[in-house]
Amino acid sequence: MTPVYVSGCFGVLHPAHGNRGVLICSSLGDEALNVYRPLVFLAERFAAAGSPTLRLEYYGSGDSGGEDSEPGRFQAWLAGIAAGVRWLRETCGVGPVTLVGVRIGAALAARAACEIEDVEALILLAPVSSGRR
What is the DSSP string of 8-35? Predict the structure, then answer.
């Protein structure tokens, strides 16, 4: 595992030598804490299968730059996901990328995939059905 900063977002790279990348979009708040270890294990499995995998924390959350109270967080989160995909491509030499999202991260991954080229697949784990819940 290698800690990295991508456009102000803290991430952890699980290196591998394959040409397909994986970017894991976690949840937020308490849910992010609850899924931390399972997502580490999932990232390790993807890397063991040959896919360089980046676990990314959103701007203004966790160890990333920014503050939770800053305006425009939604767009900053989407921009962080796009930057993570670009970083995987430039640094690890991958082509197609799979976005894996958990809870609100699933919604963010699905939205980000609309604007990112060569997103090969989406894996949505326990996606939220309503933002109010």
Answer: TEEEEEE--S-S-EEEEE---HHHHHHT
Sheet arrangement for strand 2-6:
2-6, 9-14, 53-56, 21-25, 97-102, 119-125
Residue 109 sits at the vertex; the CA angle it makes with 23 and 1, to the nearest 5 degrees, is: 20
Q: What CA–CA distance (Å, rounded) separates 16 from 98?
A: 15
Q: Nearest CA to 23 among 43, 48, 45?
A: 43
C-alpha distances in angstroms, 19 versus 29, 75, 80?
32, 28, 21
> What single-letter amino acid sits at 6?
V
CA distance 44 to 51: 9
**What pLDDT digit, counting tens, does each position of 76-119 carry?**
999 999 999 999 999 999 999 999 999 999 999 999 999 998 89
